[in-house]
Every structure is written in structure tokens, then in C-alpha cells.
Design goal:
Elements (H helix, E strand, L loop, with lengths): L1 E4 L2 H11 L8 E4 L4 H4 L1 E2 L7 H11 L4 E3 L2 H6 L1 H7 L4 E2 L7 H4 L1 H11 L6 E4 L2 H11 L3 E5 L8 E4 L2 H13 L10 E5 L5 E9 L2 E4 L4 E2 L2 E3 L3 E4 L4 E4 L6 H21 L6 E10 L2 E8 L6 H5 L7 H9 L15 E7 L16 H6 L3 E4 L2 E3 L5 E3 L3 E8 L3 H12 L18
Parallel strand pairs: 1-2, 1-4, 2-3, 4-5
Antiparallel strand pairs: 6-9, 7-8, 7-9, 10-11, 10-16, 12-15, 13-14, 15-18, 16-17, 18-22, 19-22, 20-21
Helix pairs in contact: 3-5, 7-10, 8-9
Length: 418
């Protein structure tokens, strides 16, 4: 089977598949230095659907898991289905749920999913007019893909003006910021609820929570995610079932009504406001870093489960998981989420692995001396299960503290206040 991608999410998926019965043959493309320790890796331009399909056919892949959003939005799932290879991932048309925040908002409204009031704008002046209607704070979101960094929650008019100007005039997100979504500010804890969908079947994972801002206490700029935890005490399994009925099922039904059936992972980012849950956004793939906290809990045979979902064979039931909570801590390069330092030698990995922690690689490579070095923004995720949430958190931080490199950063409050 082929896993497409090169980050911590893909490493977690590879490890889950490798635990399946029968010594499954797994290839990851393009992978990274850590994934290459576990399975074969192949070079791949994930933005080219034809290249993804060619590699899968060359490997005679039984099924493909598309990890990142880029190949999904580009149409890799369509290219694979066209040559008869099962794939876990939606079509390019259905992937617009992530590829365009304005489209996702339209679908939410048509499906009756509770969400924030919003306006779509293409100029700073129109954005400021929308902010005047909604009041502060507001969320300012680049419409297209921005690697998890296209959202600014502005508390002041100056912050809002800067965010609009950066996106629309300075084009810091490129074409992704040509259209900007202005949303009213909401207050409450956030929840990540992932479910695999196929036909009318929905198999949901337990609720998880990720931590986007770079600094403790949710301060500083947004990142791709600084850590995650599952389960979360404030969302029970019964609550998760109700949220799936409120959000995932109506969206899948609305997409089918439009002739765009959704098949793959539908990740709803939710905020639990005093007025009830509100859907903030959708991703159409496994979350990163939520996957790093969910996969260690998976109690299913991943090959059977994910492969069946790729073939459209999916039972409508919750995903089976171990009861033990899991906490994942993301370690980042100095300078992230701006311009991260590169090439720093990573120390202490073997000691951390000896604790029993799952160490998932994201931005790692090998230098000319064969040493493991930093090669990205988010470098590693350190995940640990525990008997209790407190136990899992303590174990994860104990392992993370054994790892070091010049400029390394981690948040110290992951799963600390839920």
C-alpha cells in the first residue's frame, strides 16, 4: 500500500499500517528521514496527480492513503480511481470543502450546519466594511490552502487591517488570499472531530484537540499545530455522535445532493460556544497533529479498516480505539512559523524512543555525515499513551525533554488545560 506525504501525520499512518497482521508491504512517498527508517520511501511530486497515479500503478498498490491536502485538491484521488486503484480521499470537486473556505461556508449554510456569520471579500475596503458589521474580534481567513497559517483572529482594527492587507495586497499567501473570508469572532474551546465517510456510512474517531498558536496560553501566530490530545474530557462519545449527526451527516448528504459524493476523511473544526457548537472549517484528510494522537489509540487492523474505507466498504459505527488517552507534543525549529532554522543536528532521539514514546518525524533529513538534522518547521511529534490524561501528558513531556537541537521550541501547556 502507498501512503502519500512527508510529515508526522504520514509517519503515524505508516506506523499504524505496519502494526497490521501479515507483515504488510508499505511504501511512503516522498517520506522523510524518519519514515525511511521504517519503510521504503520513493521520490514524488505530490502536487502532480499523474505522478501519484503512475507510482501507485508501478507499485501495484492495493490501496493509497493520500495524507496532505495538496494532492487531494489537485485531483490525485480522481487520477487513482480512473486506473482502478482504491484510494482513501475525496475527489477534487469534493476536496473544495478544504480548498475553498467560501465553498465550505456555502455548503454548511445549505446543509443547515451551525456556523459563524461570514462575508467573502476581495478588497481591503470591503473587508473593513464587513468588520464594521460584525464587530471585533473577527477571524480573517485566506480562502485557499495556506498550510494552516492563513487564519488571523484579530482583536483590534489595526490587526484586522494588517491581516487583510497582507492577504489581499501583499499576497503573503499567494493566490490563496485572493479571496478572504471574514467571520464573526466566536468564543469557546475548539474540538477536532474526524470521521471517515463513504456513501452514507460515517465512522467517527473520538474527539481530539489541537493547539494552533506557537506560544503557551494560545499566544502568538498560528502554526500548523503544536500538539494534540485525545480524548478530551468535555466531549464524550455521546457528544461526538451528536456532533456527527449535526455536522458530518448533513454535509455528506448535501454534497451527494449536488452530485459530488464525499468519500474519505472529513475533519470538522468546531468551536463549542455558549450558544452551542459552531463549525469553523473542514479539512478533507487526516489532521496534523491530531493523527499523531489518534493513531496510537487505534484498536483496529489499519490495513483492513483503511483499505476497506478506500474501497467504499465502511461500517457506520465509531472507530474502535484503546481507552488510554494519548498526548502528542510537537517540537519545532527555531524561527518557526516564520523562517525556520535548517540543518541543526538532532540529539537524544534514541533516549526518547527508549521511554516507549512514539516519535513521529516531520521535517527531518540526513546530512553528509549521516546525522539526523532539522529540515522544516515542525520537526518531530512525541506521542505517549497513559493510564490517565495526566499520566500520558507527563510521559510525553518526559520523552520530549530528552530531545534537543539548536533553537528547538515546544509549547509547555499541551493538554494542560482542556
Amino acid at each position: 500500500m502507498l501512503v502519500v506525504g512527508s510529515g508526522g501525520r504520514e509517519h503515524a499512518l505508516v506506523r499504524a499500517l505496519a502494526r497490521a497482521e501479515g507483515n504488510p508491504k508499505i511504501v511512503c512517498a516522498p517520506g522523510n528521514a524518519g519514515i525511511a527508517r521504517d519503510v521504503e520511501v520513493r521520490p514524488l511530486d505530490v502536487s502532480r496527480p499523474d505522478a501519484v497515479a503512475t507510482l501507485a500503478r508501478e507499485l501495484n498498490a492495493g490501496f493509497v492513503v493520500l495524507g496532505p491536502e495538496v494532492p487531494l485538491v489537485a485531483g490525485a484521488a480522481d487520477a487513482l480511481r480512473a486506473i482502478g486503484i482504491p484510494v482513501l480521499g475525496p475527489s477534487a470537486s469534493a476536496a473544495r470543502l478544504e480548498g475553498s473556505k467560501a465553498f465550505a461556508k456555502e455548503i454548511m449554510q445549505a446543509a443547515g450546519v451551525p456556523t459563524a456569520r461570514a462575508a467573502t471579500v476581495t478588497s481591503v475596503a470591503d473587508g473593513l466594511a464587513a468588520i464594521a458589521r460584525f464587530g471585533l474580534p473577527v477571524a480573517i481567513k485566506a480562502d485557499g490552502l495556506a498550510a494552516g497559517k492563513g487564519v488571523v483572529v484579530a482583536q483590534t482594527l489595526a490587526e484586522a487591517t494588517d491581516a487583510l492587507t497582507d492577504a489581499i495586497e501583499h499576497r503573503v499567501f499567494g493566490a490563496a488570499g485572493d479571496i478572504v473570508l471574514i467571520e464573526e469572532g466566536l468564543v469557546g474551546p475548539e474540538v477536532s472531530l474526524l470521521a471517515i465517510c463513504a456513501g452514507t456510512s460515517v465512522a467517527r474517531f473520538p474527539a481530539a484537540r489541537d493547539y494552533k498558536p506557537i506560544g503557551d496560553g494560545n499566544t502568538g501566530p498560528n502554526t500548523g499545530g503544536m500538539g494534540s490530545v485525545s480524548p478530551i474530557p468535555d466531549i464524550s462519545d455521546a457528544d461526538a455522535d451528536r456532533l456527527v449527526d449535526l455536522v458530518h451527516r448533513p454535509v455528506v448528504a448535501e454534497m451527494a445532493r449536488r452530485g459530488v459524493p464525499f468519500s474519505g476523511v472529513l475533519y470538522a473544526g468546531l468551536m463549542m460556544t455558549p450558544d452551542g457548537p459552531r463549525c469553523l472549517e473542514f479539512n478533507v484528510r487526516f489532521g496534523d497533529p491530531e493523527t499523531q494522537a489518534l493513531m496510537p489509540r487505534l484498536a483496529e487492523d489499519a490495513v483492513e479498516f483503511l483499505g476497506g474505507a478506500a474501497r467504499g466498504e465502511l461500517a457506520d459505527r465509531p472507530v474502535r480505539v484503546h481507552a488510554d488517552p494519548c498526548v502528542a507534543i510537537v517540537l519545532t525549529a527555531g524561527g518557526y512559523p516564520g523562517t525556520p532554522r535548517q540543518g541543526d543536528v538532532i540529539h537524544g532521539l534514541e533516549a526518547a524512543e527508549a521511554t516507549g514514546a512514539e516519535i513521529y518525524h516531520a521535517g527531518t533529513a540526513r546530512n553528509d555525515q549521516g546525522q539526523l538534522i532539522t529540515a522544516g518547521g515542525r520537526i518531530l511529534a512525541v506521542a505517549q499513551r497513559g493510564i490517565t490524561l495526566t499520566d500520558a501528558r507527563a510521559k510525553a513531556y518526559a520523552a520530549a525533554d530528552l530531545i534537543s537541537w539548536e533553537g528547538m521550541h515546544m509549547r509547555r501547556d499541551i493538554a494542560g488545560s482542556l
